[in-house]
Amino acid sequence: MPNPKEHSTMEHPKQEVLQVFKKGIDLVRDPILNKGTAFSEKEREEFNLQGLLPPHVSTFEDQVQRVTENYRRKDTDIGKYIFLEALHDRNEILYYALLLRNLEEMTPIIYTPTVGLACQLYGHIFRRTRGMYMPAKAKGNFKKIINNWPEENVNVIVVTDGSRILGLGDLGASGIGIPIGKLALYVACAGIHPSGTLPVVIDVGTDNENLLKDQLYLGEKHRRITGEKYYDIIDECVVAAYERWPKALIQFEDFTNDHAFPLLKKYREKLLCFNDDIQGTGGVALAGLLAGLRITKEKLSDQRIIFLGAGSAAVGIADMIVAGMVEEGLSEQEARKRFWFLDSKGLVTTTRGDKLAEHKIPYAREEKYIETLLDAVKNVKPTILMGVSKQPGAFDEQVVREMKKHVDIPVIFALSNPTSKSECTPSQAYEWTDGNVVYASGSPFEPIKYKGKTYATGQGNNMYIFPGVGLGAIVCKATKITDSMFYAAAKTLANLISKEDLKKGRVYPDLNDIRKISAHIAVSVCEVAYSEGIAWEKRPENLLEIVKSKMFQPVYFQYDAV
Ligand code: NAD
Q1: What angle do CA 448, 421, 389 make, to 5 degrees?
Q2: How far apart are CA 311 and CA 35, in angstroms?
Q3: CA-CA distance, 171 to 179, in Å (whole number)?
Q4: Which of 36, 132, 183, 491 would suit a FRET pair with 361, their CA atoms being 20 to 30 Å apart?
Q5: pTM above the 0.85 mark?
Q6: Which residue's CA is the nearest one to ligand 1's atom 4?
Q7: pLDDT digits (tens, 9 = 90+) for 178-201
Q8: Given ligand 1 and candidates 390, 413, 463, which is best to mutate, with the most ligand atoms within 8 Å of its CB?
């Protein structure tokens, strides 16, 4: 029997299914095994498919053309999302082939910003179940429930409690759209096998009044469970998943930061896990900054950085920059002095009077309180302005022009998502700095024209980093994920940005190179794991080749060669 690993060498979880030869309508209804109209005459005969499919056998290219036409016919983003998810649910090979060929066009649909709208509308657009729902009412039974998942091998689990979906807030169980989207990116960008991915939402209720009142909302209809009971529910789910798949990577996603930090602290040394909002964001922002400094020709350790927002993203990014400054020779304490954090109450200081959340304390300043961003910019004269506040328009003309007075090329990252939450747009940043700016956004923006020149601004999208980190961790069988892995990933990404991209103002590379990028990031992650002694596998000689060979390719399995 030919080896199904031929086209996707990551331990193929479907091998057993193939060996028992699923037949007839069951084969057509299995989204990973299905080839739809592309089943050959021989396959149709062999697997009892005759009469179940239109008679003409399509080529793969015909199928790609058909779904591309259908996709482009949809005139709303949510319509495109629904179309892509329907394809995802019926033919994953075709879905990933389509996605990989149109990554730049379709990522904003399957991920931010459209996925945010899809989550908001989840109970209204729901078609077919995907992933696992762990409802609070089932507490005590999660070990039993996790066994209902049909796949024996799971490589990556993305889990949310739906409490802080993008910049949109509490969307309860409707937040499942985020793990689904992130895992689609794992497959597309890093070639994790689709059947080895598991999206999970832990449903502890919601405080979103609209959802509680919505007849079609699909989650548990009660307020969020809090305190010790909350942590007990999360723990029971995490342990259940760990016991069934001890080597699987668990990615925590879109938890409010009062839970995100304690959960990361609790599990990061015990199992293979990370929090993408903290560590992934840190990695991708640092990569963009390192690339930006290739334009301004400055050192990281010389920067003065104002953060608007002091949540998970801010701390994740700042910690990663601190690591970079330390590598350039500063002490951790000296490095932290180069940061000014502003939250909803103004500059975060030790003397402000309110009780600071634990994650803000390392960045609290021992100086006079400043209330507004404009005053902070006047005082600090920052070289970098980092927007992670979910406050649209917060980097207004006055703030940006004030910043430009003190620095030749301001570095402005407006990272809040979705697009509607962005602190400023690229056109504004270019306009208000007379075209002298290094700009990156969290959500995608069309290229802009300024004084006759086109700038394709970069999107500091976590998808540049987390898929490669996950792939690396799986390939070397890492026992845990460390910050040094994200730091190594950031440096690798920054070095992959071409001079041509930098000339166009882009501080992130072309998404079409994502498979190459993920492979290199995976290698750098493996190297860290080998050197820190936290890999089960021994280092192979041809690491890059091994990493590439583990990537799933969206190509049909040749059943008729069986
Ligand atoms: P969070 O809820 O943890 O933090 C938000 C922070 O903003 C809080 O510290 C809050 O006090 C502060 N804030 C609220 N109102 C403010 C105001 N008026 N002025 C100043 N600060 C204010 O959220 P997070 O996880 O840190 O994410 C923040 C944003 O960054 C979101 O929009 C998210 O989508 C985005 N993000 C982008 C990327 C990326 O581009 N790669 C990655 C992660 C997060």
Answers
A1: 115
A2: 45
A3: 13
A4: 491
A5: yes
A6: 311
A7: 999 999 999 999 999 999 999 999
A8: 390
Report how far apart, in Å, the C-alpha atoms of 191 and of each of 51, 207, 463 are: 34, 37, 13
Are the C-beta atoms of 182 and 251 separated by less than 8 Å?
yes
Which residue has 């990281």 as its token pair? 300
Return d(Cα 368, Cα 457) in angstroms, integer. 36
Q: How many residues does the chain have?
A: 562
Q: Where are the alpha helices (DSSP H) in 407-441?
A: 426-432
> Contact, 131 vs 201, CB < 8 A?
yes
| CB distance 254 to ligand 1 below 6 Å | no
Kindly give the distance from the C-alpha atom of residue 388 to the centroid of ligand 1, in angstroms, as a whole number: 4
- Domains of the chain, each with CATH number or no CATH: 14-271 (3.40.50.10380), 276-562 (3.40.50.720)
CB atoms within 10 A of CB 145: 15
CA angle 273, 160, 162 (to 5 degrees): 160
Report the alpha-carbon distance of residue 307 to residue 423 in Å, rounded: 12
Question: Residue 115: which residues within 8 A CB-CB, separation 6 or more?
Answer: 81, 109, 166, 177, 178, 181
The CA-based angle 115-285-155, given to 5 degrees, is: 55
In this structure, what DSSP letter does residue 167 have?
T
How far, in Å, CA of 224 to CA of 172, rounded? Answer: 9
Tokens representing 439 are 């700009």
What's residue 562's pLDDT? Answer: 57
Q: Return the percentage of the chain with pLDDT > 90, whole number.
A: 88
d(C-alpha 116, C-alpha 466), whole Å: 19
Token look-up 């149709």 returns 44
- Quickly state the pLDDT bin for 8 (edges 50, 70, 90): very low
- The pLDDT assigned to 21 comes to 64
Distance CA(129)–CA(152), nearest Å, equals 19
Placement of tokens 């390392």 in the chain: 362
- Residue 309: which region, alpha, beta or left (left: phi > 0; alpha: psi -120 to 50)? left
Cα-Cα end-to-end distance for the chain: 5
What's the CA gap between 399 and 161, in Å, rounded? 36
415 C-alpha to center of ligand 1: Å?
A: 8
